[in-house]
Specification:
This protein has helices at 3-25, 73-99, 110-147, 160-180, 209-218; strands at 30-32, 43-46, 50-54, 60-64, 156-158. By secondary structure, it is an alpha+beta fold. The chain has one domain: Up-down Bundle (Butyryl-CoA Dehydrogenase, subunit A, domain 3). The radius of gyration is 31 Å and the shape is elongated. Pfam families: PMP22_Claudin (PF00822).
Length: 219
């Protein structure tokens, strides 16, 4: 695997970690819809941590969710998945940095560095999958409530935070896939195990007088 491709995977992983962090801190995971004939003076939006209301002058008033246990199950799971994703991304960056060919630490062989790079790539893949599941689950609930004719509360649409999460997840999966390509089989210089090798010279045994005498004795 070329050093440029491996470095590209690492940089994509770092970029994904930054975008996922920006997605988690974004306030607009879902935004109140403006469709319809009714003019709405206030715009409401929410994320995993609080809900906000913004008036026509652009002044926002945010209120944190008071009880964790009182929250819906998909919000609790989304919080856990996002935090796990950031922790996995941080660990994968450290591990992948040690596995890069351009970084020389100690007397690590190419085979060892390849295994370390693959470990970092797998962690990036897990990080991206966590964010993908989180954002897709949250978006599915928003779409379900929006299309529910019996839903009496405010209808919301998909916000910027979800799209940032999907973008960060895609970069994490792509970067992890490039790093896992570092898993290659390094040929060993040792000969293959077995009785004979391809280049082993053949030994021709010539019969001796003693062996001829012994064979005649058995006849």
């Amino acid at each position: 695997m070329s050093t440029a491709l491996e470095t590209t995977g690492f940089l994509l992983g770092v970029a994904s970690w930054l975008i996922i962090g920006a997605s988690l801190g974004n306030d607009r995971w879902k935004v109140s819809t403006v469709s319809g004939n009714v003019i709405i003076s206030n715009r409401q939006y929410e994320n995993l941590w609080h809900s906000c209301s913004e008036n026509s002058n652009g002044v926002a008033d945010c209120r944190d969710f008071e009880s964790l246990l009182a929250l819906p199950g998909h919000i609790q799971a989304s919080r856990a998945l996002m935090i796990i994703s950031l922790l996995l991304g941080l660990a994968s960056m450290i591990v992948s940095l040690l596995g890069l060919k351009c970084i020389h630490i100690g007397s690590s062989t190419d085979e060892t560095k390849g295994k370390i790079a693959v470990t970092g790539g797998v962690l990036f893949l897990l990080s991206g999958l966590c964010v993908m599941v989180c954002c897709s689950w949250y978006a599915a609930r928003v779409v379900q409530d929006f299309n529910n004719p019996f839903y009496g509360a405010i209808r919301f649409e998909l916000g910027t935070g979800l799209f940032l999460g999907w973008g960060g997840a895609a970069l994490a999966i792509l970067g992890g896939g490039l790093l896992t390509c570092a898993c290659r089989r390094i040929k060993s210089d040792k000969p293959k195990a077995g009785y004979y090798t391809a280049n082993q010279p053949k030994t021709i045994y010539a019969p001796t007088a003693k062996s001829e005498a012994e064979s005649r004795a058995y006849v």
